Model the fold of this input.
Amino acid sequence: MNRPRPIDVRVRLNAWLALTCVAVFCATSTALYRLEMSSAMTQVRREALVQMQMALAMRQYTIEDVRPLLSDQPDAFHLPAIPAYASVRAMALMRQFGNPEADYQELVLDPTNPAHRATGWQLAVIRQFNDDPQSTEWSRVLETPSGLVMQIARPVRPTPDCLTCHGTPTNAPAAMRARYGDQHGFNWKLGAAVGIQLVTVPAADAIANARAAWWRQVMANILALAAVFVVLNWVLSRSVIAPIERRSTALRRLAGTDPLTRALNRRSFEHHAATLLVRGTTDAAKPTTLVLIDIDHFKCVNDRHGHDGGDRVLKEFALRLAHNCRPSEGPFRLGGEEFAVLLADTAMEAGLKRAEALRQVVASSPFNGIGPLTASFGVATVSGAETLASMFKRADRALYLAKDLGRNRVAADPCSTGARLR
Done:
């Protein structure tokens, strides 16, 4: 028979478990993504700093090892002996054998060579170094048509050695002035930021590798969380859900069962009857028949054999009915010695036959320790819209008719189709 649908503990626990797994997945995936991106940018920054250190090393090599070789030519001007030229040229040659997208520049406010003049945002960076003499580095990540790049700049601050060429025009080598003139690249001040060393390193490959690593970790997390979900679901099912469901089923059965006879009680009867009546409202071709049953002279049983004897009769009576009814039909103990049977998809004629069969089962053999007993049966059929109270009233009227006619018989409600006495 249909029963109230219980609260599905399994579904609720699985839902909470799934939500927890999704929350953990989202949190870990976000954290992993940030970690991978941070690691990628750290790698790019490390590469940019390596480029910067190589350029500085080239400048220092030029000052310490190349210039002394030309010390016997004080008036000569050799570009390879200029630290800025040497570092830029060396880094340009390295790009041919290394990363062609990396770039190194030395840009100044007033260069000797106009090709090295700072413009636009580069001027702002130089101004920033001048405003903050303690600042030693500037960096940014920039989106370009070819992808993300990282730029790192460090200030160019003249040393006494630099002022040999970039102090006053009169102190500069004549060959340099002859080549570049004496209007630009002079009057630099010690310690002032006159330019920047700028390294540009592409980040697209590092970002792509980080995203690929992140996706691998995401897939691994999905598999791991799926495995955790399955294992926890199995553990919860065995140790938590199954016991709860067994206890819940037992409680529902207890709530819907008469404790003495183990028959279904009035609560179960009302729910099942309401379900059948609703179905009958939508489909008139499926009539429902209600059989009310009352043990004849039950008070005499109690008076003669005591309440213990009466309880034994009620138990055996319910058992006989149960052996001759489908589980969906009952029997239902409504109270005292009154029982009911609900026959779905059963018209009056068939309902009367079933009631007669039950009457014979009751009267056919004596009850253990009590003797022969009989029962009266009232039958009512409904097809279409009718309330439970109305159907019950008609069946009860038929039951009283059976008792008035001498008991131990089946009577039908006169208002039901095909009603007659048996």
User: Anything to note?
Assistant: Residues 9-66 form the longest helix (58 residues). Strands lie at 103-108, 138-144, 147-156, 195-202, 288-295, 332-335, 338-344, 375-382, 410-412. The chain is about 55% helix and 15% strand. Residues 26 and 246 are 35 Å apart (CA to CA).
